[in-house]
Design brief:
18 helices; 16 strands; 5-stranded parallel beta sheet; 14% strand
Amino acid sequence: MDTPEVLVLVVDDDAATRRLLDVRLRAMGCEVAAAADGREALIAIQREVPALMLLDLQMPRMGGMELLRELRKGGVDLPVIVITAHGSIEAAVEAMKEGAIDFLPKPFDPKHLEIVVHKALERRKLVESNRFLQDTLAARTPAVLGESAPIRRAIEIARKAAAANSTVLLLGESGTGKEVFAHSIHQWSPRQDRPFVVVNCVALSEHLLESELFGHEKGAFTGAHATKKGKFELAHSGTVFLDEIGDMPPNLQTKLLRVLQDHAFERVGGTKPFRADIRIIAATNRDLDGAVKDGRFREDLYYRLNVVRIVLPPLRDRMDDLPALAHHFVARFAMETKKAVKGISKEAMTLLLAQAWRGNIRELANVIERAVVLCNGIQIEPEDLALLSPGGGASPFSLTSPMTSGQFHAQVKQFKQATIKAALHQTGGNQTKAAELLGLRRTHLVRMLRVLSIREQ
């Protein structure tokens, strides 16, 4: 079998089985690591995520099923082939429900082993190629929406920056659309037909992040059983988006600085220099100025990143854009869920406009997705929305809250109070503007303030 040099982790408490699989897999051209139980496997995976895992289910300390659940809980995307004893097919089926992709019965038939492993590795290669293609295609379909003054300024700077190779630093609260902006800058740039690679600097440990960025040579550290290309190599002539750059460990900040200064790097454990023909876009919701002053972020790296600085406004500062964003998400999620939802009612839009949106555009997208799923008509109504009141309490329309007998009128009153308070909060207590926002006459709003016992702000 023409198998590329990949790492396969064998997890089995039986030493003879581990030795047999080691011989068979190496004959196929694979590198092999071994673990005697689930705990040892977790430690090995933390050092290096293998291309494939062969997993026995019955083991001491931590069995195969528990390991599968731990991997799924930790978000580790790893193809797993379950090793099953004769007569335990039911257990294999249960393991596949937990994320395993295939099973291998004992005793092993060499040809069957080769077929199953080959199929799993081909599947992994296809998944990785598809994910890479999706990132690149997403970069070619930017969705920066909005006509408000703050977002227009940000777009204008981004378009100008896209024409050059200068590093761009995107700043803003979590959920303000920094990755979408990075996609758009790539699409507007001369590199648009080249790879767009995303790296989350906070999702991995320092050791794994270093390997993810720079790659590593075979034998560079314990568990480095095969050479691995890093994101900088894979993104050659394209764009690398470093999300959450403010959380990058100091040691890696130094290495990244060299990439920005000299456009060169080495793989972990290697001495051969590689050229980095890449454009870097970085993003963070951290206060980098404060981090530099406190010594938590390198000042020289900060200046290298902060060539073109774009601050993305929070949603509360661009509420004029909310209707367009909301309708965009309705169309998107209606297509994904195959629902016939076409729009948002005036009452529902009023409620959306009255929210504080601390989670910004990401929170809005989540609310709209939920509303599309729950909607039974052709447009979203207030009862389809599960929102938080300005004070952080549950909305009366939170469909996850338990209902009690005879609470209809109380729920309606709470809804009115929450909506009016939100409008007053958003308008700084200006009753005339709040009335306009709610679509009410000011005299009617004043009367409702009195009837609902809402203290004037």
